C-alpha cells in the first residue's frame, strides 16, 4: 500500500493528487432493477453523469427514488444490470467479488447514518480497523490513526468507546475511519440524519473541510435541503431518473 500523501503530509493548503479534467466517477446509461417474486421493479433507468475530482455532490429525492441504490453502485456494494460505471478509470462492474472487495478497501471511504462503529472497540481501534489489512507496521498505523482523529478533533477521545461518545463524536470517528486509507472517494449516506442541528452542522463543516483542504471527492445522500447546500451541486432523483440542479 502506498503511503497517503493527504494523511502523511496534511497541511492547511488544498491537496489535489488526482489529475484535473478526468472524472473520478463516469456513468453512462446505468440501470438497475430488483426482483420481487415474479415482479421486476426498476429502480434506476439510464442514468448518465460524471463527477470530477474534488467535487462535492448531494443526491436528493423522495424515498424509493433510487438514491441509496445509486450510491451503493458507485461504492461497489452492488452491481448494475446494464450500463457503464467507471471509478478512476476502473470498470468496477467487471470485477469479481474478491477483486471488488479489494477495490473498495483501497478506493472508497464509507460514512453511514448510524455510524456503524464496533461497540467493543475504542475510537482508536475503530479507526485502525481498515489498516489491519495493509502491510503498515504498528507504529505506522498508530501515527496514521492519531493524525486522522486529530483532523476530526478527537485525539483526546482515542481510548473512549462509542457508548462514551455523543452522536456527533461517533460520526467524527466514522469520518476518521473513512479517510484513514486516503480513498479517492468518500460516500456518505444520510451522515447527519441521526444528529441534532448543531452536531449536523459540525459534520457538514468537516465534510466541507475535507473537500476544500484535502480535495476529497464526496457523494452525499441526504433528505435535508440544509445539508445539501454544503455541496457544490445537487443531483435530484425522481422515480429512478436523474436531474441536475446547480447552486
Report on this structure.
Helix 5 packs across helix 6 and helix 6 (167-179) runs parallel beside helix 7 (197-214). The model is unreliable at 1-5 and 9-19 (pLDDT under 50). The longest helix has 18 residues, at 197-214. The protein has helices spanning 5-8, 67-74, 97-107, 123-128, 138-151, 167-179, 197-214, 225-228; strands spanning 23-36, 39-52, 56-60, 82-87, 90-91, 108-112, 185-189, 217-221, 233-238, 241-246. It is globular. The strands form two sheets. Strands 6-7-8-3-9-10 form a six-stranded mixed sheet. Strands 2-1-4-5 form a four-stranded antiparallel sheet, covered by helices on one side. With 247 residues, it is α/β, with parallel strands linked by helices. The protein has a domain at 5-12 and 54-65 and 98-246: 3-Layer(aba) Sandwich (Rossmann fold).
User: How would you sum up the major sheet?
Assistant: 6 strands, mixed
Mean pLDDT equals 88
| Global outline | globular
Order of helices and strands: HEEEHEEHEHHHEHEHEE
- The name of the CATH superfamily of the domain at 5-12 and 54-65 and 98-246 reads P-loop containing nucleotide triphosphate hydrolases
What is the correct CATH architecture of the domain at 5-12 and 54-65 and 98-246? 3-Layer(aba) Sandwich
CATH topology of the domain at 5-12 and 54-65 and 98-246: Rossmann fold
Q: Taking strands numbered 1, 2, ... along the chain, how are they ordered across the largest sheet? A: 6-7-8-3-9-10
Distance between the termini: 38 Å
Query: Approximately how much helix is present in the residues?
Result: 25-40%
CATH class of the domain at 5-12 and 54-65 and 98-246: Alpha Beta
Strand content: 25-35%
Rg to the nearest angstrom? 18 Å
Figure out the total of helices: 8
Amino acid at each position: 500500500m502506498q503511503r497517503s500523501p493527504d494523511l502523511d503530509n496534511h497541511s492547511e493548503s488544498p491537496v489535489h493528487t488526482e489529475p484535473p479534467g478526468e472524472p473520478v466517477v463516469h456513468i453512462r446509461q446505468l440501470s438497475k432493477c430488483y426482483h420481487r417474486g415474479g415482479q421486476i421493479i426498476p429502480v434506476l433507468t439510464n442514468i448518465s453523469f460524471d463527477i470530477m475530482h474534488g467535487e462535492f455532490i448531494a443526491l436528493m429525492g423522495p424515498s424509493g427514488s433510487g438514491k441509496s441504490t445509486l450510491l451503493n453502485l458507485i461504492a461497489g456494494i452492488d452491481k448494475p444490470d446494464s450500463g457503464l460505471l467507471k471509478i478512476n478509470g476502473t470498470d468496477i462492474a467487471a470485477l469479481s467479488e474478491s477483486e471488488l472487495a479489494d477495490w473498495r478497501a483501497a478506493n472508497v471511504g464509507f460514512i453511514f447514518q448510524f455510524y456503524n462503529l464496533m461497540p467493543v472497540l475504542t475510537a482508536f481501534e475503530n479507526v485502525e480497523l481498515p489498516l489491519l489489512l495493509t502491510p503498515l507496521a504498528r507504529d505506522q498505523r498508530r501515527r496514521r490513526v492519531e493524525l486522522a482523529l486529530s483532523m476530526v478533533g478527537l485525539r483526546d477521545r482515542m481510548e473512549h468507546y462509542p457508548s462514551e461518545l455523543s452522536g456527533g463524536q461517533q460520526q467524527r470517528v466514522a469520518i476518521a475511519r473513512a479517510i484513514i486509507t486516503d480513498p479517492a472517494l468518500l460516500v456518505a449516506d444520510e451522515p447527519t440524519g441521526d444528529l441534532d442541528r448543531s452536531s449536523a452542522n459540525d459534520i457538514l463543516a468537516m465534510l466541507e473541510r475535507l473537500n476544500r483542504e484535502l480535495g476529497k471527492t464526496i457523494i452525499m445522500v441526504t433528505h435535508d435541503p440544509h445539508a445539501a447546500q454544503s455541496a457544490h451541486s445537487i443531483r435530484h432523483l425522481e422515480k429512478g431518473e436523474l436531474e441536475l440542479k446547480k447552486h
